[in-house]
Amino acid sequence: MSDYQKILIALRKITRAIDLNSKKLVRTSGVTGPQLLVMRVIDREARTKPSVIAKNVQLSQATVTTILDRLERSGYVRRERSLTDRRVVEVELTTDGVDKLRNAPELLQAGFFKKFDALEDWERSLLTSSLQRIALMMDADDIDASPILELGDLAIDNETAR
């Protein structure tokens, strides 16, 4: 088996693990990985602007707006005008949102973080640079992505997430 075939198989395994975990997360909690990540930022920041959320999760403002729309329809977040500047919209978790967040399982990357942190500095650097190079080789450097392991909105997840 060639090296590039081994790399493609490893990438497929990673993609499959993310897919399975994403489906399990939606099935057990009713929210997607990106929704959970957005809720965590709102919880940490208390009452915050969508632009701050987008910056924290490293997703576009438009993507965050779509996620907030779904969370608002589900009753997990509330948008309100700022008390100090009426032009600004701020987001906060509802009581249901706080409950959902507290009862949500850890994301797939929690175990990854522990294992990655246990590596030597040179191993972490090598893995990081290798994966960044692969992303460039796959013309994926301009794709909107956050530091969470999530494939994106799968058709089944979209229905559950609403």
Write the layout of secondary structure elements.
Elements: H1 3-29, H2 33-45, H3 50-57, H4 61-73, E1 77-81, E2 89-93, H5 95-103, H6 109-117, H7 121-137, H8 155-161
Antiparallel strand pairs: 1-2
Question: Rg, please?
Answer: 18 Å
Low-confidence regions? 149-162
With strands numbered from the N-terminus, the spatial order across the biggest sheet is 1-2
Q: Report the count of strand segments.
A: 2
Largest sheet entry? 2 strands, antiparallel
Shape: elongated
* CA-CA gap between termini: 44 Å
Considering DSSP H and I runs of 4 or more, what fraction of the residues is helical?
55-70%
Average pLDDT, rounded to a whole number, is: 84
Q: What structural category do the secondary elements indicate?
A: mainly alpha
- Total helical segments: 8
> Per DSSP, what share of the residues sits in E-state strands of 2 or more residues?
5-15%
Instruction: Encode the helix/strand succession as letters.
Output: HHHHEEHHHH
